Hints:
The protein is α+β, with helices and mostly antiparallel strands. Among the domains are: 3-14 and 538-641, Aminopeptidase (3-Layer(aba) Sandwich), CATH 3.40.630; 28-51 and 338-534, no CATH class; 655-785, Aminopeptidase (3-Layer(aba) Sandwich), CATH 3.40.630.30. It is 58% helix and 12% strand. The strands form 3 sheets. It has an 11-stranded mixed β-sheet, with helices on both faces. Strands 1-4 form a two-stranded antiparallel ribbon. A hairpin with a 2-residue loop joins strand 6 (582-588) and strand 7. Helix 4 packs across helix 13 (293-327), helix 5 packs across helix 8 (139-176) and helix 16 (384-409) packs antiparallel against helix 17. It is elongated and about 100 Å long. The two termini are 23 Å apart.
Amino acid sequence: MTEHHRLKEGRITTDVPRVRLASFLRRGGRPVVALLACGLLVYFLQGVSRGIEYHPMMRAAREMPGRLLWLSISFTMLSYVALIGRDACALIYIDFKVPAASLLLASFCGSALDNAIGFGTLTGKAVRERVYGALGLRTEQIERLTLFIDLGFGVGLLTFAAASALLGGSALARLLSISVILLYLIAGTLLVALLSLVVSGVRKGRRVAIIPGLLIIMPVPTVAWSLFVLAQLDLLGASVALWVLMPAAGIGFFSFAAICAVAIGLGVISRIPGGLGVFDTIVFLSMAGHMPHNKLAAALLIYRGVYFLLPLVLAAGSLAAFEMSREVGARTPMTGGRVLMGVDLLAPMFLGVLTFSAGVMLILSGATPAVDWRLTALQSVLPLWAVEISHLLATLAGVLLLFVARGLFHRLDGAWWVALIITLLNVALSLAKGLAFGETAALLFLLFLLLATRRQFSRPAAFLRQRFTVGWFTAIAVVIAAATGIMFFAFRQVPYRHEIWWQFEFDAQASRALRALLGASILALGISLWQLLRTAAGRVKLPTTKELSRAARVIRRQERSAALLALMGDKSFLFSRSGNALLMYAKRGRSWVALFDPVGPRQEWLELVWSFVELAGAHGGRAAFYQVRPDGLPVYLDAGLRIMKVGEEALMDLEEFSLQGSQRYGLRQALARGERDGLEFEILQPSDVRQQLTVLRRISDAWLAEHGGHERRFSVAAFEPEFMAAQGVALSRHRGDLIAFVSFMNTDEQREATIGLMRQLPNTPTYAMEYVITKLALELKGKNFKILSLGMAPLAGLVRTPLSSQWHRMAGLLWELGGPVYNFQGLRGFKNKFRPAWEPRYLAASGTIGPFISLIDVAALASGLVRRSPAA
């Protein structure tokens, strides 16, 4: 579906074209800080690198003995095995079992992504949400698991640093130029405190204050000590993997390990992906006085490839291989449908990361010199103009891959085709610009990944049609800035002259790099400005009669009866390409809020969710999905949305419902009193409701006057004559006079019914509504309905615990103290009289604080006070 069609079906009109400058400035604070930090880091690294020369450093990297590389890889494997064990401990801690294949998938892929990238939606937590969420792990359980892993890593890191400092002793003190006694005092105190913390809380159920205000329930001793030991193995493996690559020096391993632990910790705190620059600078400055600078820099460069990049490549390759095995029908250990869903959610994420990395590689390659002997060999094969053009085009292709990567995250087929073509062309360009064999191999591997995962990219949209975020532009700007700094470092021996810009010779590599980087900067700036200067959104208009009829046909073909709220006419529609599925939504401020999951065949959900996210993003808004069900959460996680529980829906199982047993005593009493007092029950079919609208309106108005004076809308039913006339209505009469009614919705499938309005006259007996709903449930059961939904109880089930998220704590407090504003507990208490099953409902929204703002806008939409524009 093109954006033009999506906007048309989304009922969007543009008032006047305008630049989204104000919105950009509002959200530009963090990117500006990131760019300033990058600039300072590049400037600082320029100072640090004065003792490093580019060509000797690269020669040292190429001459690294193979046995040391394999040793480094072996200890990297030890570190990642420990990380897998850490996940296993965390799953035992939250008492959730997963298949071994799912554990390996989530832990290895999550750890690889976390170590290499580790920010935004590209984190180990995001991977675990996709894999474990597909297996039924709830959001709050994933929060507990993630917190447990993070705390285990933090305690393990501090312990490893303190123990290494004690073992490093006087050598480390001399290295840091501090007193040995002071070093022992600090490290010993820290180690004793940490071990005391672990020992004192190993009994199951013991609450320990990690930091003021944060309590954690410690696991059983076996799990606690296992996690502790695994954290040490992880850090030991990571430290030794770098140590074996280092040139010989007069410093012991434990002194080095302490420095390495501090560098890892500061890299994590910096929030820079992989601690890039921070970790390397700390290690370099600490070791520079004891090792040759060029060899030290080469070791750090190789370590980046071994510990950070290699696991990421292996994870992506494993996912691609699994995709290929599915295509040919081969059986694998991971044949469960829910595990397959987890793999489906991960493949585009990893391919997007590697495509972005390939773009970075091409840009950096364009900014650095080629190997001399390769250029000499190329000189006898290709003319100069072919080398110049290949160098420039390969660098520009790297910029395009940075933009294409976002489309791959969104599963766009247009992005897949562009990535495939660019990668294929660059296989030839990388050879033609300087026989870059390593670069060619990396591109061939990316080509393999693209072909293996073709099935994942089926959304028909051009990649430049999507709205890019300011954060994405910032990342691209950081790449260009870093490439500029690396270029100045690589060619620092070449004096600058104006003539250098138009020097065209085989050995004029500085000239080629300058031209290529200038072209890359212009292309990146041009695409960014074109994106930022696109017109913004207009108003969302109400649906026309034709659109309502079209929506009704879709809704009545499926079984989820609550979807009939779409026919109230207060929500707009977004239809799938086939027209067999839809989303209903409304807009307030910058929040674009879809109600419920998509309506229609499940295979069309992913398309609709992505289309809606892009529709909101294309107009400077945030996408939110309100009251989505647990079984649909993987779709929203795949779209990069955050999940928050907002309440629970009361579902009566009519097949099991009866008036027998002590738990149904209250309902039996309500029926008995109603019959004794002369109450009568009747169900009006939709064809008969219109004749009673006047009487029903009188009861509704009287009820509204007593309860606030205006109708609520959006997520609840309202008394709209046309909407009411299409519903079933259960009536209660007293001596012939109508005193209460309940409207209910059901589709042509007649499997599920949902209660809409519950209205009664003032001074009606308190048991009258229980009487009507109980009789209605019995009638629907007799007609072979399976489910009767009593609607959602907001904030229900959000329990405050020591490991609860901030949202759970705030919501729990509002649940307990918010009675004067909204009767949260009273509503759940009334519905609980019917002994329903309570099923959680969630909000999925984009952004960090987006879910909280979206909730405010949902409350405003539901209040009925938000005015909507009439249809054109």
